[in-house]
Amino acid sequence: MIPRFTHVLQLMKNVERNLFHMFGYHPPKELALAYVHEKKPVAIPKKFSLKDIVGDGFLLAVPKFRRTIEKKLKRKFGTPEYVWKMLVPKNDIKVCQTCGHHHEKRRLCENCYTKIKKETEEIQGQIKEKLGINPIEHDVVVLYKGETLPDQPKEFWKGKRIIEMKKERPQWFSKNLLEKTTQQPSKSTDVKPTDLA
Amino acid sequence: MNQADVSKLVSKLRVKVLPRHRNLPGPKGPEGRIDKLRKTVTGLIKFERIELNYNRADEARQYAERLISEAIRHGDCHKPTMDTADFWLLEKELVHKLFKVLVPRYESTNLSYTRLYNAPRPQYGRSLDKVVLELRGNPYPDLLNNKSNNRLLIQNVLLDAAKNEYRQTKIAEMAKNIGKVGATQNTDSKINEAHEKPNIS
Amino acid sequence: MALAIRWSSSEVFGAAKWFIRRDCRALSTIPERAEEQTVSPKRERQATSRVRISARNPNLGLRHAYPEFLPDPNPKWRNSLREKLERSDMLKRRNQIDIPEFYVGSILAVTIADPHAQGKTNRFVGICIERKGCGLRAEFTLRNVVDHQGVEVRYDLYDPTVQSIQVLRLEKRLDDKLLYLRDALPEYSTFSFDMDPEVLPEGTPVPVNPVQVKLKPRPWLERWERQELKGVANIEEHLKEKDRVRRELRATPWEKYDLMKQYRNTIPIEDQNDIWAEVNHQLRQLQLTRKTTARKRTFTTPKSQLG
């Protein structure tokens, strides 16, 4: 009820004001604001050019903040515990007693190992071929070309799986180093020069 | 604090055992770990020498040692041990090998049943460390060819020759001193020294 | 009542003596028995390996009756000197009071010194539902239902306030831990405080009680359905289909074959042999003295009864 009443009141007020305005009852001229009209200068659009920014030289991306000394050192040298970028001498290199190649301490010699690995794989292949799918019940004896079973009582060899390799025993794979090697003594007659040093 | 499990008896392993097992990461979790180890143990018993990553090799080594020690302790007439062997060896002909070949081979040994060598690693590689895992007493060529005690090693031959030479010079010196008429106490002691030296070397 | 107790204790000691004579073979679990049966004569003949010889030590049977003498299998907590000192302290305590042989599932009566109780002592009777800890920290938990209220008391085995431990019924149950009695019907863990000690005739092995308890409806304290319990009868009727599916998902059947997990939970035979060689003599001596004192007591009882 009350909002409707105030609305009607407002409407009456508006009508009254408009009527006065129509018949020339204005507020006094002294209260009007003073206003001076001025013409705006017309801005001439300038063409964009890169030269304004670059000037004489090139503009590159530059670091915004200083990099701390710790970060700089870490980037340069790394951390000894994780990634150490300095060149450090390796003190754990040994000479192989068998072949004379260098290898890391507590690791196998690469030269010997590749040789042994190849031979091992060959023997493994032979064993697999010989065995087929029968159950494995006996140990393996590897015999190379031209070799016979070592002298043991016959019962010892009974049932053992004898794997025969179709080549001669490699010189380095010898069970007894006092045995004669399979390498033939050289027959070359070249005389080596002496008293060189 | 835990109490030790007394329902089972196990024999002590001759290899180092870490306080906790290693996880072998994979999508299948613990079951996948055991599956991987089963494959490795089967391969080890089958080929007797395999090359693989260190972590897996070290874990599989412990399981293989346990399997062999159980087989030695209980023999092939013990049902639980047979079940365990059946679980761990995926190829069933290897169960025969375990009880008929490996048990007699290791029955009286005092050493571990397996050996672990570090394989050479490539100089500029970032691959994981490889190792060679093998059963002792395999038919393959020996990986460690340690000949330092061999008399025919060139260093030993040279050392022997040097010793011999030293001995010869000392004996010659002694002979000279004996020939002299006025041998003093001092030279006597020298002779004694010379006598002792060869014995030591 | 007193007469009965004394007589029974002597019987218990007699039984203990019998076990010792039989190298505690009777105490061993089922697989070991099977092992003994299955060993063929051929294998026996060629049993020359160190592994088998060390496993034949008769002292190893002591591990069932005295599990707390074995150290913690976790190498993190191992310390050989501390373990040795603890063992000597345990033997000293065993010289002071009689700590009988008991297992999870046995019914015990424990008297402790209690300054606030009438007569300064407190006696509690209950079924042993758990044994854990090793060394001087060995402990066991007794459970009973008093006035319709479940009561559990945890005692330290080597606590100096413990005045006496008496075994009222020596038996084992089907499981290693009886924690499921908390969710079982109360009659399964109700024992009267004036229960008479039961006597095992000399020469019988520790009987295994095959009773299967009935669980109350859910909620439970633990997911008993996933623990493969043998001593629970009606677990399936409380389960929904969802629980069965989850049980299948969570099952770990490979753990039975995890050889290294077993190894890490046990003390190897070679280590055990050293420990039992150290304490074996004193334990046997204790058993002998206990037996003689028990005999004396039985001899003097009639006098005290008449007086």
UniProtKB/TrEMBL annotation, chain A:
<dbReference type="InterPro" id="IPR051991">
    <property type="entry name" value="Mitoribosomal_protein_bL32"/>
</dbReference>
<comment type="similarity">
    <text>Belongs to the bacterial ribosomal protein bL32 family.</text>
</comment>
<dbReference type="GO" id="GO:0003735">
    <property type="term" value="F:structural constituent of ribosome"/>
</dbReference>
<comment type="function">
    <text>Component of the mitochondrial large ribosomal subunit (mt-LSU). The mitochondrial ribosome (mitoribosome) is a large ribonucleoprotein complex responsible for the synthesis of proteins inside mitochondria.</text>
</comment>
<protein>
    <recommendedName>
        <fullName>Large ribosomal subunit protein bL32m</fullName>
    </recommendedName>
</protein>
<dbReference type="InterPro" id="IPR002677">
    <property type="entry name" value="Ribosomal_bL32"/>
</dbReference>
<feature type="compositionally biased region" description="Polar residues">
    <location>
        <begin position="179"/>
        <end position="188"/>
    </location>
</feature>
<feature type="region of interest" description="Disordered">
    <location>
        <begin position="174"/>
        <end position="197"/>
    </location>
</feature>
<keyword id="KW-0687">Ribonucleoprotein</keyword>
<keyword id="KW-0809">Transit peptide</keyword>
<keyword id="KW-0496">Mitochondrion</keyword>
<dbReference type="GO" id="GO:0006412">
    <property type="term" value="P:translation"/>
</dbReference>
<dbReference type="Pfam" id="PF01783">
    <property type="entry name" value="Ribosomal_L32p"/>
</dbReference>
<dbReference type="GO" id="GO:0005762">
    <property type="term" value="C:mitochondrial large ribosomal subunit"/>
</dbReference>
<dbReference type="InterPro" id="IPR011332">
    <property type="entry name" value="Ribosomal_zn-bd"/>
</dbReference>
From TrEMBL, chain B:
<protein>
    <recommendedName>
        <fullName>Large ribosomal subunit protein bL17m</fullName>
    </recommendedName>
</protein>
<dbReference type="GO" id="GO:0003735">
    <property type="term" value="F:structural constituent of ribosome"/>
</dbReference>
<dbReference type="InterPro" id="IPR036373">
    <property type="entry name" value="Ribosomal_bL17_sf"/>
</dbReference>
<dbReference type="GO" id="GO:0006412">
    <property type="term" value="P:translation"/>
</dbReference>
<dbReference type="InterPro" id="IPR000456">
    <property type="entry name" value="Ribosomal_bL17"/>
</dbReference>
<dbReference type="GO" id="GO:0005762">
    <property type="term" value="C:mitochondrial large ribosomal subunit"/>
</dbReference>
<keyword id="KW-0687">Ribonucleoprotein</keyword>
<keyword id="KW-0689">Ribosomal protein</keyword>
<dbReference type="Pfam" id="PF01196">
    <property type="entry name" value="Ribosomal_L17"/>
</dbReference>
<comment type="similarity">
    <text>Belongs to the bacterial ribosomal protein bL17 family.</text>
</comment>
From TrEMBL, chain C:
<keyword id="KW-0496">Mitochondrion</keyword>
<dbReference type="InterPro" id="IPR038657">
    <property type="entry name" value="Ribosomal_bL19_sf"/>
</dbReference>
<comment type="similarity">
    <text>Belongs to the bacterial ribosomal protein bL19 family.</text>
</comment>
<dbReference type="GO" id="GO:0005762">
    <property type="term" value="C:mitochondrial large ribosomal subunit"/>
</dbReference>
<dbReference type="InterPro" id="IPR008991">
    <property type="entry name" value="Translation_prot_SH3-like_sf"/>
</dbReference>
<keyword id="KW-0687">Ribonucleoprotein</keyword>
<keyword id="KW-0809">Transit peptide</keyword>
<dbReference type="GO" id="GO:0006412">
    <property type="term" value="P:translation"/>
</dbReference>
<protein>
    <recommendedName>
        <fullName>Large ribosomal subunit protein bL19m</fullName>
    </recommendedName>
</protein>
<dbReference type="InterPro" id="IPR001857">
    <property type="entry name" value="Ribosomal_bL19"/>
</dbReference>
<dbReference type="GO" id="GO:0003735">
    <property type="term" value="F:structural constituent of ribosome"/>
</dbReference>
<keyword id="KW-0689">Ribosomal protein</keyword>
<dbReference type="Pfam" id="PF01245">
    <property type="entry name" value="Ribosomal_L19"/>
</dbReference>
